[in-house]
Amino acid sequence: MSASSASQDLQRNALYNLAAVGAVLLGVLLTLGAYGHFVAIWGQMMSEDVALQRRLLLMLPGVVLAGTAALNILFSKPLWQARGYALTVTLAGNLLAALYLTYLMIQGVPNHPIGVFLALETSFVILLVSLRAGLKWPAAGYLTETR
After folding, report:
1. How far, in Å, CA of 4 to CA of 108, rounded?
2. 67 burial via Cβ count (<10 Å: 0-12, 13-18, 19+)
3. 68-80 burial string, b = 16+ CB within 10 Å, else e?
4. What is the pTM of this model?
């Protein structure tokens, strides 16, 4: 191992790795949430007296959860590789999902665990925003002091 490759390893921002692992975990949880949502609304969806617009509105939370899950899982590898485009796309998608869940929370949808998914989304968005703002972990100053 050369000295330059050792210094590059020290300067690598491990928050990208944390974001990639978080994206996969959040993707799995959002997939389970979307599945639960679709199971819960299936009876209403198959009812013949429900209008098309109502069916689409019933499906929207599940589609948002599933779409965000797919986005997170798709961009987890580029996040691990610290690609800027992956950070931007993942941040935008999760921010939109968090805003939609906030809207649902304000509307007060009964019997829906919106708060859990909103907390998960918000914490992941905070991590992505901190990465975008330039937060590094481990901090470069700390590594040079301990060596």
Report:
1. 55
2. middle
3. bbebbbebbebbb
4. 0.82
61 near 113, Cβ under 8 Å? no
CA distance linking residue 90 with residue 124, whole number of Å: 10
Residue 39 one-letter amino acid: V
Tens digits of residue pLDDT in 15-61: 999 999 999 999 999 999 999 989 988 888 787 777 888 888 889 99
Residue bearing tokens 């869940």: 101
Residue type at position 146? T
H runs (alpha helix) in the chain: 3-11, 15-45, 52-74, 76-80, 84-107, 114-133, 140-146
Instruction: Calculate the alpha carbon distances from 146 to 4, 57, 138, 140 in Å.
Output: 18, 56, 12, 10
d(CA 17, CA 76): 9
